[in-house]
Amino acid sequence: MVVVPGGPLVGRIRVPGDKSISHRVLMLAALADGTSTVRGLSDGGD
């Protein structure tokens, strides 16, 4: 089996803004190369 790396991902996705997903998206944005724009984060009202 030969694994060939893919190209960069570019685009937008829209997911519900719950606390768990908000935390994950911030972690992924911190690890990503380049600029990430995150909108609609949960305020984590607990």
Structure description:
This protein is mostly helical and 46 residues long. It has one helix and no strands. It has one helix at residues 19-31. The termini are far apart.
Summarize the structure.
With 46 residues, this protein is mainly alpha-helical. It contains one helix and no strands.
Oligomer: single chain
Q: Calculate the mean pLDDT score and round it.
A: 83
* Distinct helical segment count: 1
Which H/E pattern describes the elements?
H
Hey, roughly how much beta strand do the residues contain? Answer: under 5%
Shape: elongated
Given as residue ranges, the uncertain stretches (5+ residues, pLDDT < 50) are none
Decide which structural class fits the backbone: mainly alpha
Percent of residues in helices: 25-40%
The N- to C-terminal Cα distance equals 48 Å
* Radius of gyration over all CA atoms, rounded: 14 Å
Give the beta-strand count.
Answer: 0
The largest sheet is:
none
Which features would summarize this protein structure in a list?
1 helix, 28% helix, 46 residues
SSE layout and pairing:
Layout (H helix, E strand, L loop, with lengths): L18 H13 L15
